[in-house]
Amino acid sequence: MKGTERVLQKVAHGYHSVGFMLVMVVMMVVVYFYGDNNTDISFDSIKETEKVEDYSFEGCDFFNGSWVYDNTSRPLYKERQCSFMVDDYSCEKFGRKDFEYQYWKWKPHGCHLPRFNGTALLEKLRDKRVVFVGDSLGKNHWVSLLCLIDSWILEPSHKVAEWHGSLITFKASEYNVSIDFYWEPLLVESNCDDPVKHRVYDRIMKIESIERHAKQWINADILIFDSYTWWLEPNMTLLWGSFENPNRTYVESRRVTRYEMALRTWSNWLDAHLNREKTRIFFISLSPDHKEGGDWGKRMGENCYNETQPIMKEGYWGKGSDTDLMRTAQSVVQDLEKKALNIKLLNITQLSQYRKDGHPSIYKRHWVPPTKLELANPVQYADCVHWCLPGVPDVWNEI
């Protein structure tokens, strides 16, 4: 910006100066080389380039702000054009007709988020391995990132995703980057570990066992963890010993207690095994649901079904978001920071709270077909947990 201003000052103050002659020579060269391509070279475009280069986030509160409607630069990709979209988040494919949810941009307090640049991101990730570890919301986050970068990799053979049990590996060969997803909803071992057959009513976890999973992502350069929603079940059992051992010990526990125990197992493993000089870690805070419409003024028993607008009341907080679990995760992350691990808590909860309109509702593939009773009352089977894509998780990735 300063360089451009100096050029403008020279133009204004002296048509016969040496500086002006140099500027004219440069501009003539630019016109000579680019004129045949109908390229519009202007001071405005120069300014825009320098704005990106000089961008500062000083004083930016990334996680507090407001959603701004923007049908000019949004969405960042098209659902049907993403090579890696999955049916769980394909709201348009499954019949959603209102597309307003795709046009909201997050405006943090104190700054603007620059427009996503897939090439810049891929260059930063060159020769690295990124692993998302978690549940279907973590997968929601991962698919969002693949869709964001998909159109920036023009050659189809240079972008491939392969399924290896709990691990799905995406490779962008031109950049030698791997962006993977590893299914592990409770972080520790459990009877929910099968990436397909995990709908288990009585959830049992081996609260001190993580090695079988962790060895799959120990060599990552960036680890992104998500573990919250699966801990909300009222009935979960802790297990010491193996699932096959007749002498195994079961213990019932409070929600916060078992969550903290699992996170301590996870944090102890990170502390003992990760390379502090290599690996950067992010822990994603809880992704809020919108299951109870009474929270934002609807009748009790209603939910995100038929919602098409965000909540505009700043500071809105739904009752379904467990602050005790959030504080527990924050405490464990802070302890790891004190042990010199490169870890950050990404607090996406508040900004996502506003987006009651962003869920699939009834517009997704239902692995268990709705009953006749549910079809007569769609509120009963609306998905108010996951997120349509393009949508809210794109902002998580932008931040």
TrEMBL record:
The Trichome birefringence-like C-terminal domain, residue ranges: 113-399
Subcellular location, record wording: Membrane
Transmembrane segments: 12-35
MF GO annotations: O-acetyltransferase activity
Gene Ontology CC: one annotated term: membrane
UniProt key word Transmembrane helix: yes
Membrane topology type: Single-pass membrane protein
Domain Trichome birefringence-like N-terminal stretches: 59-112
InterPro entries, alphabetized: TBL, TBL_C, TBL_N
Main location: membrane
Superkingdom assignment: Eukaryota
The entry's keywords: Membrane, Signal-anchor, Transmembrane, Transmembrane helix
Membership in a protein family: Belongs to the PC-esterase family. TBL subfamily.
PANTHER family found in the cross-reference section: PROTEIN TRICHOME BIREFRINGENCE-LIKE 34 (PTHR32285:SF239), PROTEIN TRICHOME BIREFRINGENCE-LIKE 9-RELATED (PTHR32285)
Protein known as: Protein trichome birefringence-like 34
